[in-house]
Write a structure and sequence with these properties.
This protein is about 15% helix and about 20% strand. It has helices at about 5-15, 70-85, 130-145, 180-185, 305-315; strands at about 45, 55-65, 85-90, 120-125, 150, 195, 205, 230, 235, 245-250, 270-280, 285-290. A ten-stranded mixed β-sheet has the order 1-3-2-4-5-12-11-10-7-8, covered by helices on one side. The chain has a two-stranded antiparallel sheet with strand order 6-9. About 50% of the residues are buried.
Length: about 350
């Protein structure tokens, strides 16, 4: 992709800023047996049933230190299973000693063999470095051309600082051998920068219009989506290809409430890509990859964002004809997510604590 002064400036800013907040660090990390499945599993399983998704398996991968994916992905899995019929498996970073959910544990996500039978995956990882035998399942899923939704820090899902001789070290976000690793090679970009002021400026999703003035409100992912807002800031994205399709742009707002005004000036001229798609030819078919840099647990209080993410599952699977703009995307049960931040995760939570209540 041709460079420009604006792109060069953003890349220089990212280099000056260094790694993202809370750069890769050492970790320590027994499996928890959830009560949600009919058979023992190291993850949380919702069998799904009636709905357009019946017969399709979605695996949701939680594992980031800051944006509370351990809270958002169980909620999203329940919506997909209960409201839309998909069979869903949620896998977590677990403490090796206690079996409790520990998002700071970067090296232990049991149950990745579930990806072998998955039709679609949702990845919300950040700086993970998994044993090769586990990482193999994710790599084979992606390289098989199966569809994926990557959320926020998944642009820098991997950081190889312990085993640099791993055959998967090139998937690292800072790889020199494979520039930008998984994020840049498959999704379109790796970590660049916080484009908005983190924790001060929030984000509104604005539908894209392409050069032919075709309103991307018509994109199936935005079917029924009327509003997207979240308190996380906009990420810098500078390496997308002309063949990538921007669906939403991220408008930087002055404050942390939905009624905050857009920031005037360069931050929004142009607005950064916020949600985009990439189609990649694999073995005679097209792999559909969707990336959204908005996607913290607190962001998913937005009905519009929940609907967009549910729609990505349908679109990724080639099921866009089944997207109902009036279908329910309401959380199943209470959803009161934590605010983003390092060290704010809830201690003592087991996988089974996210299970649906037993039927009476």
């Amino acid at each position: 992709m041709a460079s420009s002064p604006r792109i060069a400036a953003l890349v220089a800013l990212a280099a000056a800023a260094g790694a993202p907040c809370g750069a890769p660090q050492g970790a320590s990390p027994p499996l928890a047996s959830p009560a949600a499945a009919s058979a023992p599993s190291p993850g949380l399983v919702f069998e799904g049933g009636v709905g357009p998704g019946k017969g399709k398996h979605v695996v949701l991968l939680a594992g980031d230190e800051e944006y509370r994916s351990e809270e958002s992905l169980p909620m999203l899995a329940k919506v997909l299973a209960v409201r839309h019929g998909f069979r869903c498996t949620v896998l977590f970073s677990l403490d090796r000693a206690t079996g409790e959910i520990n998002p700071d544990e970067q090296t232990n996500i049991p149950g990745l063999a579930a990806l072998d039978s998955a039709d679609f995956a949702v990845c919300a990882w950040r700086f993970r470095e998994l044993p090769d035998a586990d990482m193999k399942h994710f790599v084979e899923f992606v390289e098989a051309g199966k569809p994926l939704l990557a959320l926020r820090t998944a642009t820098h899902a991997f950081a190889y600082s312990r085993n640099k001789e791993s055959p998967y070290a090139q998937w690292s976000f800072d790889s020199g051998k494979w520039p930008g690793g998984f994020g840049q090679q498959f999704l379109g970009d790796t970590w660049v920068s916080h484009h908005g002021h983190h924790g001060v400026q929030s984000t509104r999703g604005v539908p894209e219009q392409n050069h032919q003035q075709q309103d991307h409100h018509e994109h199936p992912i935005l079917r029924g989506v009327t509003d997207v807002w979240g308190p996380t800031d906009v990420y810098g994205i500078v390496r997308l290809l002309p063949t990538d399709t921007v669906v939403l742009r991220g408008q930087v707002l002055e404050g942390m409430t939905p009624d905050s005004k857009p920031v005037a000036g360069a931050l929004n001229e142009p607005m950064m890509p916020l949600l985009w798609t990439r189609e990649r030819a694999v073995g005679g078919k097209m792999q559909r990859l969707i990336t959204s840099t908005i996607g913290a647990a607190i962001d998913l209080k937005s009905e519009g964002l929940r609907r967009a993410f549910v729609n990505t599952v349908y679109w990724g699977l080639g099921m866009e004809a089944a997207i109902d703009p009036k279908s329910s995307v309401e959380p199943v049960g209470a959803y009161e997510p934590s605010m983003f931040g390092f060290g704010t995760w809830k201690r003592g939570v087991k996988v089974a604590d996210h299970a649906l209540p037993a039927k009476q």
